[in-house]
């Protein structure tokens, strides 16, 4: 039996339907790739000028929180303005700058990892945003909160290790002094954050250190 010819209008309609089904998905993918390319190019431009990218609330939400993202951003939250009187923040910033510079000017540098900083006076809304990761009650705990507390404890532990090495190592005095300062900075900073989390969960807890 001979096949009946398909009318041209039917073929045209089928082609339009096929394009209609594929068009939005392809356009959405192209849009996603374009946005991602713009974000990476922007970060690379900033990283070429300074190893630690300073972010405010808008930059943090757009480049760190919002998809698409095929890169990681290491962010230090600090308070460097003189009226904050955070001496440890200054010391931690110096160590962070050294770490970021080591990565930026190493042969392993790629556009997959960036170092950034959010100062409280430039992005207080970001600090408020991060409070959503800490449950306000001692009767519950978010999954993210578990990792945050683990990170803080790890920072305190690393600081203690550096202090021990500074006291017992046979390295020259200059390096031991740097290790000692870095160790003190880590212990003070992360222990202060731990107390801050504890105070936010156990209301009425009277003690704090550096941060309320």
From TrEMBL:
Pfam families assigned to the protein according to its UniProt record, in alphabetical order: OST3_OST6 (PF04756)
Pathway: Protein modification; protein glycosylation
Listed InterPro entries: OligosaccharylTrfase_OST3/OST6, Thioredoxin-like_sf
Cell inner membrane in keyword set: no
Family: Belongs to the OST3/OST6 family.
Membrane topology value: Multi-pass membrane protein
Protein name as annotated: Dolichyl-diphosphooligosaccharide--protein glycosyltransferase subunit MAGT1
GO aspect biological process, one term: magnesium ion transport
Annotated signal peptide: 1-28
GO CC annotation: oligosaccharyltransferase complex; plasma membrane
Gene3D superfamilies: Glutaredoxin
This protein's UniProt keywords: Cell membrane, Disulfide bond, Endoplasmic reticulum, Glycoprotein, Magnesium, Membrane, Signal, Transmembrane, Transmembrane helix, Transport
Subcellular location: Cell membrane; Endoplasmic reticulum membrane
Transmembrane segments: 148-166, 178-198
Organism: Lepidothrix coronata
Major localisation: membrane
Organism domain of life: Eukaryota
């Amino acid at each position: 039996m001979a096949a009946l010819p398909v009318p041209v209008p039917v073929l045209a309609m089928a082609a339009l339907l096929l394009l209609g089904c594929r068009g939005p998905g392809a356009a959405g993918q192209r849009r996603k790739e374009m946005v991602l390319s713009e974000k990476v190019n922007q970060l690379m431009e900033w990283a070429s000028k300074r190893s630690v990218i300073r972010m405010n609330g808008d930059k943090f939400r757009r480049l760190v929180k919002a998809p698409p993202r095929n890169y990681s951003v290491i962010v230090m939250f600090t308070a460097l303005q003189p009226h904050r009187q955070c001496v440890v923040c200054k010391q931690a910033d110096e160590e962070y700058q050294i770490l970021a510079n080591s990565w930026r000017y190493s042969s392993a540098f790629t556009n997959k990892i960036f170092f950034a900083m959010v100062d409280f006076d430039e992005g207080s809304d970001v600090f408020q945003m991060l409070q959503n990761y800490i449950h306000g009650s001692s009767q519950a705990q978010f999954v993210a909160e578990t990792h945050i507390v683990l990170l803080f404890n790890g920072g305190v532990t690393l600081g203690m290790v550096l202090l021990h090495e500074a006291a017992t190592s046979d390295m020259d005095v200059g390096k031991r002094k740097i290790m000692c300062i870095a160790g003190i900075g880590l212990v003070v900073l992360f222990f202060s954050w731990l107390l801050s989390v504890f105070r936010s969960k156990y209301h009425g807890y009277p003690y704090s250190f550096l941060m309320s």
